[in-house]
Amino acid sequence: MSDLRIAVLGVGIMGADHVDRLSSRISGARVTVVNDFLTERAEAVAADIPGCRVISDPLDAIADPDVDAVVLATPGPTHDKQLLACLDHGKPVLCEKPLTTDVESSLEVVKREAELGKRLIQVGFMRRFDEEYSQLKSLLDAGEFGTPLLLHCVHRNPAVPPSFDSSMIVKDSLVHEVDVTRFLFDEEITSIQILKPATNPGAPEGIQDPQIAILRTASGKHVDVELFVTTGVAYEVRTELVGETGSALIGLDIGLIRKGASHGRSGSATWGGQITPGFRERFGRAYDIEFQRWVDAVRSGADSGNYVDGPAAWDGYAAAAVCAAGVESLRSGERVDVQMVARDSIPGA
Ligand code: ISE
């Protein structure tokens, strides 16, 4: 079978990383087209990839006959148009979160895909492919903790881009715990409340950081998340699941543990390891697994019409609905119910 020919749209840090992984670590695929709103940036990326061209209009890149499938790493506000173009051309797409930036357009995308009777859209919630999250999910599904009851999550970033405001902490950072909750518990989130503790004096003026998010699921399970994105330290993402018969904790970054004298001197024993500097390092392997599984699913999708192996358009819509309620709670301080249509009201979703 010939290699899947992929267009990568958006080659900032994340998209350029994806071009690199598709070109060096993923089998069965090659990048034939890149696009970016900064043409020079796209040209610099294409120059390193044999057989890769720049197409300056994103919709032309999607339509190009030399493209079988698309990776979207473009800014969120452009996603709805680009996703609809992928659906119009029947091209499978791996879309970095968010699916789209508002609930209505996310629902529109879900409906349009369902009308086609094919599953073409995968959403880039990479944590589902991380080995520790996968292990936790397998233990949970095997009943190792009895009935799952609670999740305690920590999501800390050393810093965020200057464009980040308080609502981005919900839409760009908390969105991962929203997806993790739905993935681990296999149920929808029905309400959310954002608490606003005293802010970090080191955070940029006007940003509510840290935040505490309290989620409640359809069966009444409780999830709490500490979001703190200006720690100045390193990247820390931890999840503790508490169940009826036990608990498990992942994301401890326990690398090298060293005991004994250091530097040849006695009496100066050390213990501990490195903390991951950023999400690209922490989840690098998860991204590789995600991309390999997506490429394999797309290459074998024609018979079944399913070109997805992972979170789908519905998961992107559900995350958008929870985050919209989260932004509302950030404003009001109240608990806000999540507004979603029933999944079975959209046949095929
Ligand atoms: C970023 O976009 C990510 O997806 C990271 O995983 C998350 O930790 C960070 O807060 C986001 O800004």
From TrEMBL:
Concerning Gene3D superfamilies, the annotation shows:
Dihydrodipicolinate Reductase, domain 2, NAD(P)-binding Rossmann-like Domain
Q: Which reaction does it catalyse?
A: myo-inositol + NAD(+) = scyllo-inosose + NADH + H(+)
Residues forming the Gfo/Idh/MocA-like oxidoreductase C-terminal domain are 137-338
Question: Which parts of the sequence belong to the Gfo/Idh/MocA-like oxidoreductase N-terminal domain?
Answer: 4-124
SUPFAM superfamilies named among the record's database cross-references:
Glyceraldehyde-3-phosphate dehydrogenase-like, C-terminal domain, NAD(P)-binding Rossmann-fold domains
Q: Which InterPro entries match?
A: Gfo-Idh-MocA_inositol_DH, Gfo/Idh/MocA-like_OxRdtase_C, Gfo/Idh/MocA-like_OxRdtase_N, MI/DCI_dehydrogenase, NAD(P)-bd_dom_sf
Q: In its UniProt entry, what is this protein called?
A: Inositol 2-dehydrogenase
- Source organism per entry reads Mycolicibacterium mageritense
Gene designation per UniProt: iolG_2
